[in-house]
Amino acid sequence: MKNHNLFAALRAAFPAALDQVAIETDNGLRYSWADLERATAMMANLLQSLGLPAGARIAVQVEKSVEALMLYLATLRAGYVFLPLNTAYLSAEIEYFIGNAEPAVVVCSSKNFGWVSKIAFKAGTQNVFTLDDDRSGSLLARAAHCSDQHAVALMQQDDLAAILYTSGTTGRSKGAMLSHGNLLSNALVLKAYWGWQKNDVLIHALPIFHVHGLFVAVHGALINGSKMIWLAKFDPKLVVEKLPQATVFMGVPTLYVRLLAEPGLDRDACRNMRLFIAGSAPLLIETFTEWQQRTGHTILERYGMSETAMLTSNPYQGHQGDGRRGGTVGFALPGVSLRVQSDAGLPLPVGEIGGIQVKGPNVFMGYWRMPEKTAEEFTADGYFKTGDVGKIDERGYITIVGRSKDLIISGGYNVYPAEIEGYINDMDGVAESALVGVPHPDFGEVGVAVVIAKPGVTLDAAQIVAALKSKLANFKIPKQCFVVSELPRNTMGKVQKNLLREQHKSLFG
Ligand code: MLC
Ligand code: AMP
After folding, report:
1. pTM
2. What residue ranges define each of the domains in the chain, with the CATH number in brackets?
3. Ligand that comes closest to the CA of residue 413
4. In what helix (H) or strand (E) does residue 34 lie, and over which residues does it extend?
5. CA–CA separation, 363 vs 186, rounded Å?
């Protein structure tokens, strides 16, 4: 029987010479392909020695490191389900994810072990390990006693590989379930579409708890047996320094904006580069054009989401369509059916704006333990409603013009207004609130909160922000907060967020 385990496909692409460097870190460490093979075998054996049930979730909130990547690969290898968590999440957020996913194993930083283990044990998790970014922690100590021989677990295409939590418009996070088949099909399509070559070298500068850094970047390099230059954190100076040793770079638009502010970014620094890829948030045409002028390279913009991995891409080859067109996200990828529909569910002609819907082997298996929510997000003929609004031109190029979901994308991270408004509305003296996204030169878009006090109460905006900081991940904190006497409403009584956005659109220049 064919093994559909994603790890088996990645492992099969390792170069024959396993002693070559697979990953080089920014602090001078070098890991060979043999190191990846051995360490993932040992961690997979550790996980399997715990006697976990099939489909057990391994929840991980740790700083970025090569060992953290190995833990992801070992989880695939052992046949369990990886559940990565943003390192910025605080206790209330972690409590929700652990309570909802009921992981059998939780891995956290040793500095957080006290509070994370308390939450995990309360939720019934039996195993809590630590893993730090200096190659220490109980996970590695335990794995060191395990065999470095391991037979990759046999998986079917539809078996789960990962759950990625993505917040909902109601504020409650949903776990998007991705299978081995979803992830492998997408990795193979991108391998061909972006012309990956064995001698490519990828600069990996993104976090590894989201689709972009964990799947698009990591799978891209591994399934080609290509080396990665591994940066623990995005640092524009360091990226410019490493560019001459690399051929591929991937980033959210904020990374490109910050790189453009580096005087050392020029054609010479990019002399060996083959491809710059951007996604996760809209890339401004100014950034696209300035990048072309400074480096001589045309950024390739693509579009995807947690539920679907990658959906569209501008062409790699110049002869496809008109080449890479700024302001568009390119064409539906091979195997992806993409259509634009009206609110009434009717197909729209070329150039008309409507809801983007997609179908394909990359589209997820549903939301974890939310069958009704899953059903709501699919059409009767099996298309997933992305919540993005766009149009397709006569050449097939897709442009995203907005979102029907109330979502702010800030520096590539999603912020759901409903969640933040919920926290503000629960504060003493608050009658109601609205969070809107406004343009920001660095993060693309940031949240601004507008709050109404209960009659007779005087609220302090700074205190509201401080209270939020103690409860929510840093990227969700509004960059400005205003206490006002009323919110604009339409005749139905609904808050008109478009007017608030208009009012505050120039706050950040
Ligand atoms: C940090 N801050 C942010 C923020 N990141 N605020 C809003 N949005 C963000 N993204 C906060 C910090 O806590 C700090 O607050 C202040 O803003 C300044 O932070 P900084 O030092 O400038 O931030 P930095 O640590 O450099 O991080 C910025 C960043 C990071 C752009 C490098 O946000 C990042 O790595 N973004 C990439 C996210 C990503 O990978 N997305 C892919 C999702 S997958 P204070 O109060 O402490 O001063 C997906 C699907 C797809 O969407 O299609 O790919
Ligand atoms: P996430 O749920 O974090 O994976 O975020 C997915 C969302 O990011 C998509 O639904 C889009 O709204 C947005 N997105 C991803 N890529 C792009 C892009 N190239 N341009 C505009 N929006 C994008």
Report:
1. 0.97
2. 1-20+33-155 (3.40.50.980), 322-403 (2.30.38.10), 408-504 (3.30.300.30)
3. 1
4. helix 33-49
5. 9
Please report, in tens digits, the pLDDT of each residue of the chain (509 residues total). Answer: 899 999 999 999 999 999 999 999 999 999 999 999 999 999 999 999 999 999 999 999 999 999 999 999 999 999 999 999 999 999 999 999 999 999 999 999 999 999 999 999 999 999 999 999 999 999 999 999 999 999 999 999 999 999 999 976 566 799 999 999 999 999 999 999 999 998 999 999 999 999 999 999 999 999 999 999 999 999 999 999 999 999 999 999 999 999 999 999 999 999 999 999 999 999 999 999 999 999 999 999 999 999 999 999 999 986 566 799 999 999 999 999 999 999 999 999 999 999 999 999 999 999 999 999 999 999 999 999 999 999 999 999 999 999 998 999 999 999 999 999 999 999 999 999 999 999 999 999 999 999 999 999 999 999 999 999 999 999 999 999 999 999 999 999 899 999 999 999 999 98
For residue 37 and ligand 2, the question of a CB distance below 6 A is answered with no
Q: Report CA(334)–ligand 1 centroid distance (Å).
A: 31
**From the CB of 112, is ligand 2 less than 6 Å away?**
no
Choosing from 210, 216, 305 the residue with most ligand 2 atoms within 8 A of its CB, the one to mutate for a pocket test is 305
Taking Cα atoms as reference points, which of 360, 470, 378 lies closest to residue 90? 470
- CB 173 near ligand 1, within 6 Å: no
Q: How far apart are CA 397 and CA 321, in angstroms?
A: 8
CA nearest to 211, candidates 259, 165, 274, 159:
165
Q: Say yes or no: CB of residue 474 within 6 Å of ligand 1.
A: yes
Q: Read off φ and ψ for residue 219, nearest 5 degrees.
A: -60, -40
Bridge partners (DSSP) of residue 127 are: 105
Q: In sequence order, which ranges of 343-440 are alpha helices (DSSP H)?
A: 371-376, 417-425
Helix (H) or strand (E) holding 481: strand 480-484
Which ligand 1 atom is nearest residue 205's CA? 35
The one-letter amino acid at 59: A
Instruction: Give the residue, by CA position, lying nearest to ligand 1 atom 5.
Output: 475
Total residue count of the chain as it appears in this document: 509
- Cα 74 to chain center, whole Å? 20
- Calculate how far, in angstroms, residue 499's C-alpha sits from the geometric centre of ligand 2: 24
β-bridge pairing 201-204 and 105-108 = unpaired
Cβ(305) – ligand 1 distance below 6 Å:
yes
User: Pairing relation of β-strands 398-403 and 384-392?
Assistant: antiparallel
Classify 498 as helix, strand or coil.
helix
